[in-house]
Amino acid sequence: MRGVMPAVQPELPAKRDAGGADASGGSPAGLPTTLEGIRREIDAIDLELIVLLNRRASMSVQVARVKRANDAPTYQAGREQEVIRNAQTASAGPLTDNHIRAIWSEVLSASRDLQRSHKIAYLGPANTFSHRAAEVAARVRFGTFVEYVPCRNFDEVFAMTERGVVDYGVVPVENSVEGSVGGSLDLFVASPLQICSEIRLQITHHLVGHGPYDQAQRVYSHPQALGQCRAWLARNIPNAQAVETSSTASAAERAAADTDGVGIATEEAAVQAGIPVLVRSIQDHAHNTTRFVVLGKSYGAPTGNDRTAILFVTQHRPGALHEVLRQLAERGLNLTNIESRPSRRGGDLWEYYFFVDFDGHPDDPIVQDALEAMRQASMTLKVLGSWPIEARIDGTPLAVRPLGKP
Question: How far apart are CA 340 and CA 311, in angstroms?
Fold first, then answer.
């Protein structure tokens, strides 16, 4: 049971005098010069911090009451990014922007935990890249007060999020080498879920197994991982049979059970399976990156630096796609991504859904105008979500080399 906040907050410790020459052994600049004095000053500041943090937590609990009364989501990416940016702007140092982001992410996470802890679904099992993306989403967006829920497939991630069994889902939508992840894109067509955030994860593949790897007869992994390491496999173990698995974690398990096999997996999966990493970083492209999206019941308010995803179907006539997309160009809205997927609706065999990302937010007047014009020019159009744009990429690949060699 959580403690109840006192109605009257304790009094803040007294401020230091302007000259800084207090009993702690201050300097003319206002800073103590002895270790004992420094520690006393830190302890006093900590007391001020805990009072202020508890006052902030009390406000967060009140926010939760207001959100429940208005059926509003607990997590709003735009608002939380605004809070972090405000803190970064106000800081005069020595804390860097990264320090402030890390600190405030935990403060915000604790606040959400007081409101209600979060559950995040991902494509399991544990120690897959989807699991890592969920952890990054938690660390960067939600903090550490999170429960991770592994799912058997993308359908289950969507279903659990739609039913409210979890608060959010994390799925991959695009890889910089292999292209779009069709299995997850197809589920957006019928799902009411909205994209509320994005994670870009650096993908580093390791060859794992009992070894020696150059004598392996089979190589296990997820189809995406096999494709992303195709050239390395052809050069180093060209005669090994490629065996597809449901995840990189299961690839490590298969390699652990097969003395003549190896797997492509994360180091965490290898540790879990009890086998060593034979070769690190075997992906064909050094900057191999996968884009994941965070799914929720709604997307956040505009921040002034947002990206929006839509899907639409065009009519079968010359220039139909151009007619839809020109609505963005004419309004100066930057198109950042376009993909197509078969509709699978059972009508026209060659009907396609187009998935488009562009800069802007659905609440922006110019975007509202563009969306209305695009609806008029298409057979159907659906907004899939909107999220604050971030350039960060999480994870850094290691140099390609066999383990234990220079």
Answer: 9
Flag whether 126 is in a domain.
no
Mean pLDDT of 241-248: 91
DSSP 267-290: HHHHHHHT--EEEE---SSTT-EE
Give the Cα separation of 169 and 195 in Å (integer).
9
pTM beyond 0.70: no
**Alpha carbon separation from 237 to 8, 74, 150, 215 (Å, rounded):** 70, 50, 32, 8
H or E element that contains 97: helix 97-115
The count of structural domains within the chain is 2
| Distances, alpha carbon 241 to alpha carbons 98, 195, 238, in Å | 44, 38, 8
In this structure, the number of other CB atoms found within 10 A of the CB of residue 378 comes to 20
Q: Is residue 175 part of a domain?
A: no
On whether residue 218 sits in a domain, the answer given is yes
Separation of first and last alpha carbons in the chain: 54
Q: What does the alpha-carbon distance between residue 177 and residue 148 come to, in Å, rounded to a whole number?
A: 28
Render pLDDT for 199-218 as a digit per residue (tens, 0 to 9).
888 888 999 999 899 999 99
Range of the domain at 368: 306-388
- Alpha carbons within 13 angstroms on the beta-carbon side of residue 254 total 23
CA 197 centroid distance within chain: 7
Structural domain contains residue 163:
no
**Pair (379, 327) in one structural domain:** yes
Per-residue pLDDT band at 180 (split at 50, 70, 90): confident
Q: How many whole angstroms separate alpha carbon 203 and alpha carbon 181? A: 15
Q: At what angle do helices 365-377 and 320-330 cross, to 10 degrees?
A: 170
